[in-house]
Amino acid sequence: MQIKAEVVVNWTLGLHIRPATKIVKLLKPFASDIKFLRDGTSCNAKSVIQLLTLEAGKGDAVDIHAVGEDAEAAVEAVRLFFQTYDDEDGIIGPY
Amino acid sequence: METMRGIPIFPGIAIGQVFLMDSEDYRIPQRCISENEESINSEKKRYLAAIDRAIQELKEIENSTSIKDIAIIFQGHRYIIEDPGLQEEVLEKIEKFFYSAEYAVSHVMWKHRLKLKSLEGEYYSRRLSDLEDIENRLLRHLLGEQKEDLKSLQAPVVLVAQDLAPSETAVLPLDKILGLAIDRGGRTCHSAIVARTRCIPAVVALSDCSAQVCGGDTIIIDGREGKVIIRPDQETLDIYLKVQDREKLHQQRQRKLASLPTETIDAYHITLRANIEDNAEVEIAVANSASGIGLYRTEFIYISTPDPGEEDQYNIYRSALQKLDGQKLVIRTFDLGADKDFCEGTSYEQNPFLGCRSIRLCFENPAMFKTQLRAILRASAFGNAEIMFPMISSLEEVQKAKAILEETKRELAQENIPYKSDIKVGIMIEIPSAALIADLLAPEVDFFSIGTNDLIQYTLAVDRINDRVAHLYKSAHPAVFRLVKNVVDVAQAHRVKVSACGEMSSEICYLIPLMGLGLREFSLSPGVIPEIKEYIRSVTMNQAIKVARQVLLCRTHEEAVHYLNRQIPTLSY
Asked: How far apart are the first and last CA of chain A?
């Protein structure tokens, strides 16, 4: 099964390490091969470091490409994430 | 292999491994392993074991914090380290290219940093710190007890950095630095001064050398041509090993001149003294046959020790005088502020170079000023010390500084503490107003020292540490030569000694016209003294005078430089 969809990054700091980590955590249980694509670059959505190189900033659209048995569920999960994720401002820590 | 060009700072060839300051905390001890299966497998195992330890460590950090935001960042780091793609990249470097685990990690993380380069501002710097953090964690686990950070280096390295502030150079293990490659900076930047003092081959203004290398890369620094070669091939390496030998012979030959006088062919004597920042450099000055210290930049005492009291300073100055064994030591009072931070309650200034720095700061902190003067005076009983006040812009300032000095002398006399009562007092001429009223200042002092670094800056209104206008900092601007000529003429008329102590005198093409204008005393970075001495011995004062006359007719810096570049090589016999 092959599913495609499009989502938009709607939080200020874009696809940085925090949302990237949450996405990877979210998608790990799925068996399907899941790719994010943007502006000619494609990456494995289950790899934090690859997600970072997508350079997706606020307002950027990202294409999802899932292939496998649970592709539909995976894409739904991603869509829900992009709709509801709230990147709190002013994170503390070494950054 | 890649060649990059910048400004040559100190001649010589350095060949070594990169220590990439800022990005990496530890020296990469070995670039490659032996090219056999056993080494490859054991190296892979080392890497995988280090990964396990790093992952364990990150899990513990995650669990130990109750703050979700922090936990998730470390979880992200863990996911990156666990990422099979990343691991594959590192393992491939070990297997196919025989990289050591440390070098493989350094290289792969560098490549990922490069990918992030096109991002701007906040994204870039945050993700960059993530990758640097991860790399250092892995290196720490790989190197274990053997890890060497900058302060604990066991083997020499070539330091590559974006920039080096005075506070950073103050803590460098200079005996372990083979060479310097700096992205920013210019001829008078602090790294340049350090390199010329310590005889370290250096190139600055390379623009983005630090982004083109990773720790452990082999790099060649050609400090004479102003080139660096990254990851040289064997052929280039062989060529440069030969050049390195030639440079060493060159320097040995110059050292032999130590016992000979610094005289032009037509017997004009030139005094070459040294600029130093701390007592360790006194030995370097003496080793390079300096006739004493023409400028002791005492603010570095303030930068390296938190609050140097009278006793500490007295011991420092006294020790320097004793090492000099009768040769002159010109102590400049604190020149703090601007690029040399004075910590105590400094408020932000929009124009620090025009602000409360140097002698102005001393007037505002009389306790600090007097403490230094007391220490200098007490030490003066032990050798040939002279005092110099920086950044003087008016008659009132000299008079005020001298009044405070006299007051300090009276106090010491009352306390029955010995000091050199006829200690010579001079001023830096580095502000255009002082250069223009040199005749009014002459009666007040025993000597002038022309500080060309700041004189050029203030005269041309160019911030010498601002990259955007660095190209406008023009040493051979006619205004500079006219001001210098004025000061020298006044000094000669008033029988006041005059010398020059900026980086301009370290460059032969500028030194010759300065000599031709009448300067006979210079204070330079110790490392360049032998070469300058050799050059002076091969020219005549007559030639220098002709050159100076011609330079004064030039209408622009470019005209002067064009003339000098053609003329100077033809001069030496």
From this structure: 40
Choose among A21, A91, A95: nearest Cβ to B79.
A21
Q: Which residues contact B418 (CB under 8 A, 6 or more apart)?
A: B378, B381
Active site residues of A: 16
Dihedral sign (CA B379, B307, B336, B292): positive
CB contact under 8 A, B73 and A94: yes
Q: Residues of B20-49 as b/e, b for ≥16 C-beta within 10 angstroms?
A: bbebbbbbbbebebeeeeeebeebbebbee
Instruction: Give just the sign of the alpha carbon dihedral B553, B556, B559, B560.
Output: positive
> pLDDT of B136-188, one tens digit each?
999 999 999 888 988 889 999 999 999 888 878 878 898 999 999 999 988 88
Among candidates B67, B126, B133 on the partner chain, residue whose Cβ is nearest the Cβ of A16: B126
B389 pairs with which residues across the strands? B427
Place of tokens 């010109």: B330
Residue A27 in tokens: 């998608």
Three state DSSP letters for B123-141: HHHHHHHHHHHHHHHHHHH
- A–B interface: beta-carbon pairs under 8 A: 71
Q: Residue B78's closest CA among B62, B102, B94?
A: B62
Q: CA distances (Å), B240 to each of B7, B210, B217, B528, in order?
A: 19, 21, 16, 22
Residue A94 pLDDT: 35
The answer to whether A1 faces chain B, any CB pair under 8 Å, is no
CB atoms within 10 A of CB B481: 22
Sign of CA dihedral B218, B222, B226, B229: negative
Separation in Å, CA of A73 to nearest CA in chain B: 23
Closest partner residue to A55 among B86, B119, B122, by Cβ?
B119
User: How far lies B507's CA from each of B8, B225, B452, B504, B531, in Å?
Assistant: 11, 14, 12, 6, 10
Strands B447-450 and B293-297: unpaired
Sign of the dihedral defined by the CA atoms of residues B438, B443, B449, B451, in that order: negative
Give me the interface pTM, i.e. the ipTM. Answer: 0.74
B2: β partners = B230
Which DSSP string do the residues of B448-470 spell out, in sequence order? EEE-HHHHHHHHHT--TT-GGGG
Q: Are residues A4 and A65 in contact, defined by beta-carbon separation less than 8 angstroms?
A: yes
User: What is the Cα B493 distance to its own chain's centre?
Assistant: 36
Contacts of A26 in chain B (CB under 8 A): none
pLDDT at res. A95: 33
Contact call for residues B41 and B49 (beta carbons, < 8 A): no
Q: Give the list of residues 6+ apart from residue B385 with CB closer than 8 angstroms, or none.
A: B317, B321, B328, B329, B330, B331, B376, B379, B420, B423
